[in-house]
Amino acid sequence: MDGTVTLPIPRPHRDDVFLAVVSVTGGLLLWSLGVHGNGNRAFFPDWVALVPLAVLGVMELLRRSMPRLTLTVGTVGIVADQFTVGSLGTVVIFTDLMYAAVVYGKPAMARRLPLTTGLITVVVTIASVAWLRTPQALLIGFVTGVVCFGPALTGATLRNHREAAEAARLRAEQTALLAEMDRAQAVVAERARMARELHDMVANHLSAIAIHSTAALSIDSPATSREALGVIRENSVQGLAEMRRLIGLLRDAGAEQEAVAVPSLDGLDSLIGKARTNGAGSGLDFVLEDRRPPGEPLPAPVELAAYRIVQESLTNALKHAVPGTVRVRVTRADGVLTVRVDSPYGQRPGPRAPGSGAGLVGMRERAELLGGHFTAGAAGTVWQVRATLPAEEKVVAG
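Request: output the structure for the sequence above.
Response:
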């Protein structure tokens, strides 16, 4: 290896090859017929006009890959052509090189060429009129504009259209990408909501079923087994009804689908009653203290979130609480709804239902989605659940 660097030769585009062949062939044909561009102003033999034609024909092959070089060589060639009999093919090729330099060149060159060629056209026109002092001198300026300024302006117009179309395409792709991201986020959020609803609607019944079935299997007493089977049957029926309602929502059956009632805090008495029945065999009692001012409705999302938090807290108490009193307190003050659930905490004897921790995650998500706050943890012999939710309609409406 000698350390030399070989620059790759760009492969001409097939359209450029076609243009080069047609242009050179046309120029040769016109030259052979004696059609020249400069008349009797030649300083060299007629065949010399073929040299600029051939050079510009070669440059036509590089018009896309090396626009700056082709325009530089083309400018020298068109100037040299003026000292020969002239070739119309050379002029035509130069106009195409000017056009290609604007279309395929760098942005800075594409911006400068229309201005530069326009200024050259004006200067040549003024100089011709001042030098020749005849109306025919305007024709020189016109030809200069056609050969230089016209192709540059055409190329700039096409390039602007292409750039605008490309920008529109990129905006459309970005819009589609953002829409897809929004759709994916909406799907994830909806899945999380469905998971919370499914867990909160069914976990209570399944926990009761698990506890009482374990008791029925571990305690050899017909009366206890019969009582446990009764509780299991009741929770199975209620859990099945909840599942059917949820499936009805997911199927989106349309206007004929019976509206599903959204749980509210008015149903806490019934919820406490069911928990009291399910927890009787475990030595649990449930007390509700609803201290909300009467006649002050809550936003539906807050009602649902508070109901589900109480429901899940009762389910956790059935699973893990030691014998004692589970106290539920709901208050509203200063635009904030507060939910408190206190359960006896300690080492529980007898059958227990396993937990996964999904309930605590769901309660925290419900509170945070509404701009509220949620905490849960042991404080001595009491497991405390605290949730604060915004109770004003204007806060939730956003």
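The first strand starts at residue 284 and ends at 291.
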